[in-house]
Specification:
alpha+beta; seven-stranded antiparallel sheet; 11 strands; elongated
């Protein structure tokens, strides 16, 4: 029995030693990042090689669904809403599957479920975010290792390119650059928002900077907010106190405390009570 246990222990140690040896993956993982306009795009996929085989029409038969790579399904992530082949796609991550209709035409499908090893066991049409019907271009040389890239880049779009063996497809997409830049311009030209004034005022208070500016900015912020929150009024009271206007600070603290009580926020009630005591109002 002891001899048998010793054999098992030696076998276990040998297996653990071998398990620490790293060998090259047949289809190495790749991660590609590209900014198009103001939108960040990331592609993660495993890259199989031809290795003397016939890929399309044999290893990957026509009429079948291909994971557009190897191992875990290929994914593409957009930081903003985009348009793919004329179809609106929300920001987020998508699996890329390819239906190999023929040697001349494929459907590249953007699928919202990214957690598949290969193609989904049960296909769900409701998870299809976009389908790009693309013509396949035959190339006059063989590309050994699958490549997925983004090319034809402009400020407003580009193409997602898939090239392998002797086949190439490009999926056109656009990004909302003009919409994003126009919104930023409108915001800047309209001047600071209530949040900008509020954040600046609180920063100046906490950093011990010019309290008169903090008071001016907090008043501006409050004038722009339809119904200030009790936490905002609390900061206003602190700024007024720091500016030497104790009377107004006390009134604001009472207002903040009443609103905090109504909201059931005992923490702010207590904070206002402490300030009122400090300022001689209780």
């Amino acid at each position: 029995m002891k001899k048998l246990l010793l054999v098992f222990a030696v076998f276990a140690m040998s297996f653990a030693a071998y398990a620490q040896i790293e060998t090259p993956a047949p289809s190495p993982l790749a991660k590609f990042e590209q900014k198009v306009g103001l939108t960040d795009i990331t592609i993660e996929y495993s890259r199989p090689s031809v290795k003397g085989r016939t890929i399309f029409g044999d290893l990957e038969p026509f009429g079948g669904m291909w994971r557009t790579g190897a191992n875990k399904n290929t994914t593409i992530t957009f930081s903003d809403d985009v348009t793919i082949a004329g179809q609106d796609v929300k920001a987020g991550s998508y699996a890329m599957f390819t239906k190999l209709n023929s040697a001349e035409q494929w459907d590249v499908i953007f699928y919202s479920d990214t957690e598949n090893w290969g193609t989904p066991r049960e296909w769900d049409d409701s998870k299809v975010a976009a389908t790009a019907k693309v013509d396949v271009a035959a190339i006059p040389f063989s590309v050994e290792t699958l490549a997925i890239d983004i090319n034809n880049i402009t400020a407003t779009g580009g193409t997602i390119d898939i090239i392998w063996e002797k086949s190439y497809v490009g999926i056109p997409f656009t990004v909302p650059t003009d919409k994003m830049v126009s919104a930023a311009i409108d915001k800047v030209m309209a001047g600071p928002s209530a949040n900008d004034y509020y954040a600046s005022a609180v920063y100046y208070l906490n950093a011990g900077k010019d309290v008169s500016k903090a008071k001016m900015w907090i008043d501006k912020a409050m004038s722009m907010i339809e119904k200030p929150g009790f936490w905002q009024v609390r900061q206003q009271s602190l700024i007024y106190a720091a500016a030497g206007d104790k009377k107004a600070a006390i009134e604001l603290a009472k207002k903040s405390m009443a609103a905090a009580k109504e909201a059931g926020n005992q923490n702010y009630v207590n904070q206002n009570m402490e300030s009122l005591k400090e300022w001689g109002a209780m």
